[in-house]
Specification:
With 267 residues, the chain is mostly helical. 76% of the residues lie in helices and 0% in strands. It is built from 11 helices and no strands. The longest helix is centred in the last third of the chain and has 29 residues. The radius of gyration is 19 Å and the shape is globular. The termini are far apart.
Length: 267
């Protein structure tokens, strides 16, 4: 990550406390519903992951606005790295309270890393500690939510067998991290707006639900996988349509350029 530049905190839109409440409450409710309800409803874990992704993307938006530069992708990957550690630890010791324990552990890890970034590395970003706590917790909830989609449960043994041992955890790491880091990375600039950025977060998280829904077919069967993917597709379509409308709202002009000319046409 580069040292914070001349930027400042992102302004406008919903307050951080509102987005945080959506991420924590929506994330945990979705994860628990996906765990306790029949396998056909494991998509609730994905909806919880979508709520957490929006929270994480907003936290990245706020901290990266200070001038992280190339650190925007890095901080998204860091969120999921912290999330994997916290999620597996919480599930291994917490039992039915595993997701809550995982979030608490994630907050501690994020706070320590945020303090090291500011106090030791000297990044000098006023909200670094708070932002690292938030993205760590959001990353943890994304890991848990998408794991529930695949495994149908957050039981530690089920997650290890159906998500970790077969390598799907790497898939979750990439698509979950993209949902947190990509929205601001794709929208940054003087005309960045919170609603457009976070709508893109929903769209990317819906793609994660579709992909993990497909992965769930190996464990939960084609019917459940089909439901997971259908819910993801519906959410993706709505979010994509909304994001495109917001692009047209904010763009100076939207023009169709057609296909790029071939080499023969340029001669």
């Amino acid at each position: 990550m580069s040292v914070g530049g001349s930027g400042g905190g992102a302004k406008g839109g919903y307050p951080p406390q509102t987005i945080m409440a959506l991420g924590i409450v929506g994330g945990l409710v979705g994860i628990y519903l996906g765990h306790f309800m029949p396998p056909a409803y494991s998509f609730f874990g994905g909806i919880g992951a979508i709520c957490a992704t929006v929270w994480g993307a907003d936290a990245v938006r706020r901290v990266a606005s200070y001038g992280l530069g190339t650190g925007v992708p890095s901080i998204g990957m860091l969120a999921l790295g912290m999330g994997i550690l916290a999620a597996l630890f919480g599930l291994s010791v917490g039992g039915i309270a595993g997701p809550i324990v995982a979030v608490v552990v994630a907050a501690i890890i994020g706070g320590v890393i945020g303090a090291l970034a500011n106090k030791v590395i000297g990044m000098g970003i006023p909200i670094m500690e708070q932002a690292m706590i938030e993205i760590s917790c959001a990353g943890t909830l994304v890991i848990l939510g998408l794991s529930v989609v695949i495994a149908g449960s957050f039981d530690y043994a089920a997650v290890i067998e159906n998500v970790v041992a077969n390598g799907y955890i790497a898939l979750i790491f990439i698509i979950g991290g993209m949902g947190i880091l990509h929205p601001f990375n794709a929208s940054l600039g003087p005309d960045e707006h919170q609603d457009r950025t976070l709508t893109l977060a929903v769209e990317k998280a819906a793609i994660a639900l579709i992909i993990t829904g497909f992965a769930s077919s190996l464990h939960e069967g084609l019917m459940t996988a089909g439901v997971n993917m259908l819910v993801g597709l519906i959410i993706w379509y709505v979010a994509f349509s909304k994001h495109y409308a917001l692009i047209k709202r904010d763009a100076y002009a939207v023009v169709g350029t057609g296909l790029l000319p071939s080499a023969e046409e340029l001669q």
